[in-house]
Structures are given as C-alpha cells and as structure tokens.
Amino acid sequence: MNRMPCPINDRKEVLLDYVAGRLPAEARSAVEEHAVDCPPCQEFLAEQAVLWSTLDSFESPAVGSDFDKKLYARIASQEKASFWWKAWQRIFESGEPWSWRPAIAASAVFAIVMAVVLIRPASAPYGSGGDAAKVESIRSAGIDVPDVEAVEAALEDLEMLKLGTGSSI
Amino acid sequence: MTSVAALERDAQLMLRVREGDAESFALLLERHRTPVIHFLYRMIQNQAVAEELAQETFLRVYRSRESYEPTAKFTTWLFRIATHLALNWLRDHKNSRGEVTLDEPSEGFPTMQVAHSEASVEQRLVKESKAAEVRRAIGSLPQKQRGAVLMHKYQEMEYRQIATALKCSESAVKSLLFRAYETLRTRLAHMA
Fold first, then answer.
1. Could you tell me if residue A153 is inside a domain?
2. pLDDT tens digits for A26-55?
C-alpha cells in the first residue's frame, strides 16, 4: 500500500481539510495512518483542531426583525428610480457585449474631463474651485454631466456581476 | 457542506427570479440572509453595518436578476458581492475607525445574553471573555486573510469559491489561510 507523502510542507491544505472534516473517508484514513509516524503532522493536527473548536465561540447576533421589510422598501424605492438611471443601468446590465461597456464608461469620463478643461473660468487657475464647483458650473451652462461616482459604482458593479451574468471575461 | 441538490435549487430559484418570480427571491433571501449577515458581521464586527451591507448585497442580486446566468454557484456569486462590499467598507473606514482594538467590544454583539440554560454567571462570563478574545484575534487579521478564514471556517466554502470571492488564485487562498490560521493558533494558544 502506498503511504501518503508528508503534506506538512507542500500540501498543508490536506491537514486543514482533515480538521475541517472535509476529506472523504479514504483520504481521512490516509492522513491518520501518516500522522501515526509523523510528529510534525501530529502537532499541526492537534493545534489546528484546538483552534477550530475555539473559533466556534465567535457567534453572531440575531438578525434584526425588520431586515426583510427594509430590504423590500429599498427594492421598491429603486423600482421607482428615474428613467435615466434605469437607462444607465440597462446599458451595464443588458446582454450586450462586455467590450461596449468600458468604452461607454470611458467616453462618459472623457466627456466630463473635456468639459471641465474647456469650460473652466478663464480667471480661475486650473485646479482651483474644486471638482464639485466645476461640475456645477458645467451643469449651470445647460450641459448634462453624468455623476462620476455613479460611473465608478457602475464599473464596480460590472466587475462583480461578471460572474453571475455569464461573462467569459 | 451544501448538497449538490441545494446548489442546483439556488440556481433554479434565481432563474425564476430572472423571470419575475418574487416568491423565489423571497426563498433565496430566507435561505441566505443569515449566513450573509453573519459573514459580514464577522468581517466588520458591527451588526448595524453588517445588516446594511447585507441589504446592499441582496439589492444588487435583485438588480441584476434580468441578466443572471448560472455560470457559477449562486453562493459564490453572493459572497463575492458581500466580500467586495465588506472590503470596500473596511478600506473606506480604516482611517476613521481603525482596526478592531483590543479594548473595544464589537458593536452589536450581545454582551448580556438571556440565560436559557442553567450555566452559572461565572461560566457565562468565561464564555463571553473567550468569544471576545476570538473576535479580537480575527479582527486583527489583514482583511483578505480575515475574509478567507471566515468563508473557509464559517461558510464552509471551497478553496475555488473563496478564490472567486476574493478575486485571487486558489494557491493564493491557501497561502492566506495558512498564514491566518498560524497567526490565530499562536494568538489563541493560551485558550486551549
């Protein structure tokens, strides 16, 4: 019978899985058989087992009774979001090719940057007044400036949603 | 460990949510609400913030329902979102809040537990003291190590799932876990 090579250096996850109870029966037996003659593995298993039990004392409080109510209220609120926010979301959450979306977001950011550069007051040196004031001055000129934070948030959503929305990227 | 049938059921429920079935979303919420909140609580160690972030997690799941595809386990996706929100919150509040200190009890944790058992006052205090020490030890871990431990120990997630949630490789996850558990073994050895 082939004995298991010592996992303490290169395959320590086997020992973690043993303590966590996640090894199949055959693998468990192999670890136990190996540990009989391996003091380092015995020590590791013993210490990890104690830690595993100790970590069980980290309990969490009960969930608030109004959690679901608050969540559904937020969902309902979002459902009433403005036409433009929904259109913005549809761009990022539709089944369109993923390559369009970074380009669209990049275009929006570029448009903001160019608007700030071109429209900033002549008397104000670049960098003074703050970004908020620049954006406000652009908006007051009648130019619709998308919210940069919304663009950034959408890009973050894009990254997270790749997994759940079938993207192969 | 989550059964294969349960995992497939999650995907089926989410596909129904995609079709507009609100009841399926309620079932997913019922099944995963507590684990997500508990994970976030152990990450943030603030119950109010944990519930807020959990709501944001489910809100994002609901918001993306129309384009959902079961390319990965639902729980993997769910915890990827939750982990992302938790790490962002910790990063954004690091300067104002600092890491969990040794002297601060985590917010929202019930320090006075209702005595359902006949445990003595002394036993209860010992138990609370032990729990507080474990909380501090986990709170002192670097954020990614903390997330890896919480998903591995309390959510019983596989290395591959944790890697997806943390956006790193499986070997990186194992490395995070080895270092984290070694730190915890050292720090909590006196509690053996």
1. no
2. 999 999 999 999 999 999 999 999 999 999
Say if A134 falls within a structural domain. no
In Å, how far is A71's CA from the nearest CA of chain B? 6
Contact A164 B77 (CB under 8 A): yes
Say if CB B41 and CB B131 are below 8 A apart: no
* 8-state DSSP, B116: -
| Tokens linked to B89 | 């919150």
Assigned domain for A113 exists: no
Cα–Cα distance measured from residue A92 to residue A39, given in angstroms and rounded to the nearest whole number = 56
Q: What is the DSSP string of A50-109?
A: HHHHHHTT---PPPPTTHHHHHHHHHHHHHT--HHHHHHHHHHHSSS-TTHHHHHHHHHH
Domain that holds residue A16: 12-57
Structure tokens at B70: 């079961």
Q: Which residue of A lies nearest to B57 if distances are taken between CA atoms?
A: A71
Domain presence at residue A98? no
Smallest CA–CA separation between B150 and chain A, in Å? 10
The answer to whether the Cβ–Cβ distance between B37 and A60 falls below 8 Å is yes
Whole-prediction pTM: 0.72
- Return the sign of the alpha-carbon dihedral for residues A82, B79, B108, B182: negative
Q: With H, G, I as helix, E, B as strand and everything else as coil, classify residue B107.
A: strand
For residue B46, what are the β-bridge partners? B107
* Domains held by chain A: number: 1
Q: Which residue of B has its CA nearest to A76?
A: B59
Q: Higher-confidence residue: A114 or B60?
A: B60
